[in-house]
């Protein structure tokens, strides 16, 4: 620490013209960085974009900022050499420390960039089928924190800030006590990663939120609600919630009923039940394991026909199209047999609420059950 003060005093006590020239050297390398190095790197990036693999692209992208920073450090080093800072009080050339620190910063920044989204590390993890996308944010943040702590520790030790390194442990304990909620969210995120109740892109539902998972961080999980709003849920709360993962169900249920007139002959009822069953069995989008078509009830309005089956279509838009197609086919079957839907007949003295006596038609029940 004392050596650093000596170096600063020596620089400030140099003749003004030497300081101006030293600053000009640094500025010259800034211009070289901006107008030459940047263009060369952009040209190299365009060349590697033509290749089939992404390894070289990610390698160049990770190295662009460290290379620019290296050019600036070279300018600073030459400026220090020019003002001859090594002659102060016969102290060994401090540029050695500067060189070591610059190398640590450049290499640390390069390693830091390798852990970012679309980096080499991310591409390698994405290729492994047994590793979920949910894991990468935690690996990335953990790796970046390690790189930052190591770089700061090396530089601090190089310049004699030993107290700083010791203080990291003491301040770490104080920070842990002051940030209990943050650490509970962190452990909640780790539980989510290990237990894998959902992945990024899954449609989930809890007591408080429903939507598509967009991002998982150390502190929270961001869910895109169906209203298109972003809901941020603390990991500790989400890890302790009952989570329904609709994406992982593999199939969706469709069930509904309709009522036909009392005028319908029994033979026709048996015939349409068989025709509807055959139609469902011949539909490739209907699961064949469980198909129910039955005369389930006799109401005051007519005979109730109940239909229950599953479809292998998960996407909601396609799911609605499947229901529409099946409903139209059922209507065609009923029309071909001259079967009419039942409707209530009101007497003059009926005091029943008219809102409860609407004509019964095919009614799909869209509410999903927890099974």
UniProtKB/TrEMBL annotation:
Compartments in which it is found: Cell membrane
Gene Ontology CC annotation, any one: plasma membrane
InterPro entries: LSM_dom_sf (IPR010920), MS_channel_C (IPR049278), MscS_beta-dom_sf (IPR023408), MscS_channel_2nd (IPR006685), MscS_channel_C_sf (IPR011066), MscS_channel_TM-2 (IPR011014), YnaI-like (IPR045042)
Domain Mechanosensitive ion channel MscS C-terminal stretches: 256-341
Superkingdom: Bacteria
Keywords: Cell membrane, Membrane, Transmembrane, Transmembrane helix
Sequence similarity: Belongs to the MscS (TC 1.A.23) family.
Protein known as: MscS family membrane protein
């Amino acid at each position: 620490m004392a050596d650093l003060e000596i170096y600063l005093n020596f620089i400030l006590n140099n003749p003004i013209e030497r300081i101006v020239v030293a600053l000009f050297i640094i500025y010259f390398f800034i211009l070289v960085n901006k107008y030459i190095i940047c263009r060369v790197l952009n040209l190299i990036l365009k060349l590697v974009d033509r290749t089939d693999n992404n390894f070289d692209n990610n390698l160049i992208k990770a190295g662009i900022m460290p290379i620019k920073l290296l050019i600036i450090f070279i300018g600073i080093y030459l400026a220090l050499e020019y003002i001859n800072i090594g002659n102060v009080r016969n102290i060994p050339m401090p540029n050695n420390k500067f060189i070591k620190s610059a190398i640590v910063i450049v290499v640390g920044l390069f390693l830091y960039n390798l852990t970012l989204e679309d980096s080499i590390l991310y591409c390698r993890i994405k290729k492994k089928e047994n590793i979920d996308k949910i894991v990468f944010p935690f690996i990335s943040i953990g790796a970046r924190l390690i790189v930052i702590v190591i770089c700061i520790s090396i530089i601090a030790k190089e310049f004699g800030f030993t107290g700083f390194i010791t203080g990291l442990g003491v301040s770490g304990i104080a920070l842990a006590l002051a940030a209990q909620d943050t650490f509970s969210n962190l452990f909640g995120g780790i539980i989510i990663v290990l237990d894998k109740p959902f992945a990024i892109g899954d449609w989930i539902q809890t007591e408080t939120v429903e939507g598509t998972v967009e991002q998982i961080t150390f502190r929270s999980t961001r869910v895109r609600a169906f209203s298109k709003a972003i809901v941020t849920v603390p990991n500790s709360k989400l890890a302790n919630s009952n989570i329904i993962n609709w994406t992982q169900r593999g199939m969706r249920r469709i069930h509904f009923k309709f009522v036909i007139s009392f005028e319908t002959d029994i033979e026709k009822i048996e015939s349409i039940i068989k025709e509807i069953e055959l139609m469902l069995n011949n539909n490739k989008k209907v699961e064949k394991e469980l198909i129910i078509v039955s005369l389930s009830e006799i109401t005051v309005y007519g005979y109730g026909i109940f239909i229950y089956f599953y479809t292998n279509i998960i996407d909601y838009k396609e799911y609605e199209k499947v229901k529409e197609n099946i409903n139209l086919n059922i209507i065609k079957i009923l029309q071909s047999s001259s079967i009419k839907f039942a409707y209530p007949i009101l007497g003059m003295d009926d005091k029943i609420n008219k809102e409860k006596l609407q004509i019964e038609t095919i009614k799909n029940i869209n509410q999903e059950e927890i099974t």
